[in-house]
Amino acid sequence: MLQQTPVVRVLPIWLEWMERWPTPKDLAAQPSGEAVRHWGRLGYPRRALRLHACATAITEEHGGEVPSDHATLLALPGIGEYTAAAVASFAFAGRHAVLDTNVRRVFARAVRAEEYPPTATSAVERRLAESLLPEVGAPTWGVAVMELGALVCTARAPRCADCPIADRCAWRLAGKPPHSGPARKGQTYEGTDRQCRGRLLAVLRKAHGPVPKEALDVVWDDAVQRERALDGLVADGLTEVLDDGTYRLPG
Q1: How many CB atoms lie within 10 A of CB 32?
Q2: Nearest to residue 101, comparing CAs of 33, 136, 153, 63?
Q3: Is the pLDDT of residue 187 over 70?
Q4: E strand or H helix at 247, and its extent?
Q5: Distance of CA 107 to the CA centre of its chain
Q6: Spatial contact of 247 and 216, defined as CB atoms under 8 Å apart
Q7: What is the pTM of this model?
Q8: Could you tell me which of 60, 53, 24 has the C-alpha nearest to residue 36?
Q9: pLDDT of residue 6
Q10: Model confidence band, residue 184 (pLDDT cutoffs 50, 70, 90)
C-alpha cells in the first residue's frame, strides 16, 4: 500500500483492512474483487490484485504464515525487491538494504554529492546501500534513514539545519550542486486515463453487483478515452464483463 503512496493516505485504509482481514488466509478466502473494492482511492489498484494473489500463495504454499526468508518472499506474486527487503528486515530483523525513494535520496546527497538519485535504482546504489548496513541493528538503521529522508532530507526543501549528518553530507559540503540529470517532472492526473479508470472503478466499488454500461458511461464525457480505460480495466483483471453486457469487480 505504501508504494508510491504517502502514509497519511494509506493509514486509514490499512487499519480497515487489518480489521477486516487480519491474516493472509482471511484475505485469500474472499474474491479478488473485494480487495479491489476495499482498496478505496489509494490508486494503482492492480496492487490490490497482487496483494490478494500474494495472500493466496501464502495460504496455499506456506500454511498461511508470511515467510521470513528474503528469497522466498521474492518468489511470491507481486513482491519485488523493495517489499521483500522491507518485510525481511522490519518484520523478521533480517540484514537487508531497504531502498525506497527517501533512502535513495539521502544516500545520493550524503555520499555521492548528488541532489537526486537516478530515476531507476541502479546496481551502484544497491552496492552502496549494502556497504553502509551496520552489522548489528540493520532494521533500526533502515527505519532511521527512511525517516531522515521523509522528514528532514526532503526532495524540495531539505532542512539541512536540522540534519544530524549535515557536517558530513557530501552534497552540502560541495555547495549543494543542482541536479544535472534529466528534468524531474511531476506526475499529472487531471484528465488522464488514470483518473478515468478511477471514476469507473468507483462506480463498480459502490455497486456490490453488476453495473449496466450506461451507469459507467455517465462518469466520463470523452467516449474514446472512457472505452480505452474500460478496456484497460478488463485487460488488467480489475473488471469483468458478464454475458448480458454488464460489468462488475472480479469474482
Answers
A1: 22
A2: 153
A3: no
A4: strand 247-248
A5: 21
A6: yes
A7: 0.86
A8: 53
A9: 84
A10: low
H helix runs in the chain, sequence order:
7-20, 24-28, 32-38, 46-61, 70-74, 81-86, 101-110, 123-132, 138-147, 170-173, 193-207, 213-217, 223-235
CB 59 within 8 A of CB 25: yes
Identity (one letter) of the amino acid at 125?
E
The continuous run of DSSP H or E covering 248 comes out as: strand 247-248
- Average pLDDT of the segment spanning 7-33: 96
Q: What share of the chain is helix, strand, coil (3-state, %, to 5)?
A: 55, 0, 45
Contact (CB, 8 A) for 242 and 248: yes
Are the C-beta atoms of residues 203 and 213 closer than 8 Å to each other? no
Q: Please give the Cα distance from 23 to 151 (Å, whole number).
A: 31
Confidence category of residue 185, pLDDT binned at 50, 70, 90: low
> What percentage of residues in the chain have a pLDDT greater than 90?
90
**CA angle (36 as vertex; 35, 42 as ends), nearest 5:** 110
User: For residue 89, what pLDDT band results from cuts at 50, 70 and 90?
Assistant: very high
In whole angstroms, how large is the CA radius of gyration of the chain? 21
Query: Which has the closest alpha carbon to 100: 171, 3, 186?
Result: 3
User: In this predicted structure, what is the pLDDT of residue 189?
Assistant: 81
> How many residues would you count in the chain?
251
56 in Cβ contact with 25 (< 8 Å): no
